[in-house]
Amino acid sequence: MSTQTIEVDGLRQRYGDFEAVRGIGFSVGAGRLFALLGTNGAGKTTTMEVLEGFRPAASGSVRLLDADPYRDRRALRPRVGIMLQESGLIGDLTVAETVGLWRDLHADPLPADEALKKVDLTDRSGIAVRQLSGGQKRRLDLALAIVGRPEVLFLDEPTTGMDPEARIGTWRLIQELVAGGTTVLLTTHYLEEAERLADRIAIMHRGEIRVAGTVPEVVSGHGDRIAFRVPAHTPIDALPLLDGRPAEIAVTDGLPTARWTVSGGDPDGRAHRAVAALVAWAAERGVTLDRLSVRPASLEDVFLSIVESR
Amino acid sequence: MKTDLAHIQRLARLDLALIFRNRSALTNAVLMPLAVAAFLVFTADQGGRDNVEFVLTGQIAGLLMFAPLVNLAGFYTSRREELVLKRLLGGPASAAAILGGSAAGATVVYLLQAFAVGVAAVVLGFGLPGNPLLVVVAALGGAAVFALLSMAISGVSASGELAQLATVPVMLICFVLSPVIVPPGAFPEPVQRVADFLPLTPVADLVRAGYGAAFDWSSPALLAAWVAVAAVLARRFFRWDPRRG
């Protein structure tokens, strides 16, 4: 018996000559939300499709609810909800008929009005699916994924095409589901979405997981950002070294700004020590540190540093 | 297994609702085939009463070319390209139930049409089949063969329209060479030998055996062989992922 709801170890997957997934591993505990981030082509959807049971793992092991997602698909299917990246809904059916069809396929579905209410489509129930907007179709697709009360939910870019209001509503629904014990594997392009929802994240790039952990863990490995405006009449080479490194100079509003990323030492005290050194330097020279800012790395900083690396 | 049957029934109901809701599907799958059958039966009148009976019973086989072949191949293909099949496969229904549901829907359409022909036979004074079981075996076996063939054809077609186009040669060859409207023996020997082994031939022979012609065990044997061959082809060529991109 595995204690993890989702377990992936050494998964590899290729399409012809192209190796889409190159030996990845991660696990997701029951009632947790794990987010896979990455650019297009990073291997997120391929990983999802193996876990969803659409294709067997080429090599490595993949377990879902302690079963093989491909071989045991028949047993797993009723326990799993899937929202694909691209939805294939029947345009001639109404919203209510579509939910009705999926309810009939499940043994113990949510009531139709409850499913529609959760995705805020109650007032569209009589409309033909082909007349829905892109964001509304995504919400209907989400309703279909949850109508069978799944234990595990796969969401492949669930909020793509939604307006901000719908996105926030969807986030709230996902949070409710996780609070209710549903395990969720999510892929997204929106870093904010992962930051808000995920217990743990992994950033994939070119078929590999480059970094994984909780959001604070992931960002703390990427240093703190310190910046201030270079004082007038201060030559660049007079700026101090922080963490043993010289400042990077960027020009904002026509004035030079000095920036450091300090990543050495203990993550809790390193920003303080760097700022103390800067303040001492400024006092010695009799200048002020205009527009001084200190912030931890953001998920975006981490993401960009991975995506821009070769 | 029980859930599979429940799913097949539900998905067949879905397809029937969609066929009767969509005017072009209703025309192509339901009305046009009946019009063709009626036309063939009425023009057969010139060949005498035996010829009318031959063409009439032949239609019970010939109608298989429409809903369970041309229409179903188009249905599978357009749904696959629109990702509907994959969406369904991500749900609780099994692959067999999803494909079987559409096949069952098409079979119901065909059986209603075949029933209409049977009623026409009574009205025209040819009576009921003496051995209805043979007619039922022919109809269901034939529906299985052509539904499976439509899965295989769908797998090699890039769009619903192309899939329908790809079924046309199958339809024409079966319609002309199998004993649907043209009695056996009308073709040169080599052509006749091919015609004897076409999938529609045992269906037509079994229907006529049900209506009193001589029964030969080679007919159900050939039909069963075709079910097996079509199943292998369907397994080999059918696909769930779109062909585009």
From TrEMBL, chain A:
* Location in the cell: Cell membrane
Q: Domain ABC transporter spans what residues?
A: 6-231
Chief location of this protein within or outside the cell: membrane
**Alphabetical UniProt keywords:** Antibiotic resistance, ATP-binding, Nucleotide-binding, Transport
Q: Which GO terms describe its biological process?
A: response to antibiotic
Q: How does it sit in the membrane?
A: Peripheral membrane protein
One Pfam family recorded for the sequence = ABC_tran
Top-level taxon in the UniProt lineage: Bacteria
What GO cellular-component annotations does this UniProt entry give? plasma membrane
Q: Which GO terms describe its molecular function?
A: ATP binding; ATP hydrolysis activity
Designated name of the protein: ABC-2 type transport system ATP-binding protein
Q: Which organism is it from?
A: Actinoplanes philippinensis
From TrEMBL, chain B:
Q: Which residues form the ABC-2 type transporter transmembrane domain?
A: 9-210
Is rRNA processing included in the keywords of this UniProt record? no
**Keyword Signal (UniProt):** no
Residues passing through the membrane, by range: 25-44, 56-76, 97-127, 133-153, 165-182, 217-238
In Pfam terms, one family for this protein is ABC2_membrane
Could you tell me one molecular function GO term of this UniProt entry?
Answer: ABC-type transporter activity
List the membrane topology term(s): Multi-pass membrane protein
Q: Where is the protein localized?
A: Membrane
Where does this protein chiefly localize? Answer: membrane
The alphabetized list of GO BP terms reads:
response to antibiotic
**Record keywords:** Antibiotic resistance, Membrane, Transmembrane, Transmembrane helix
- One of the record's GO cellular component terms: ATP-binding cassette (ABC) transporter complex
Per the record, the domain of life is Bacteria
What is the official name of this protein in its record?
ABC-2 type transport system permease protein
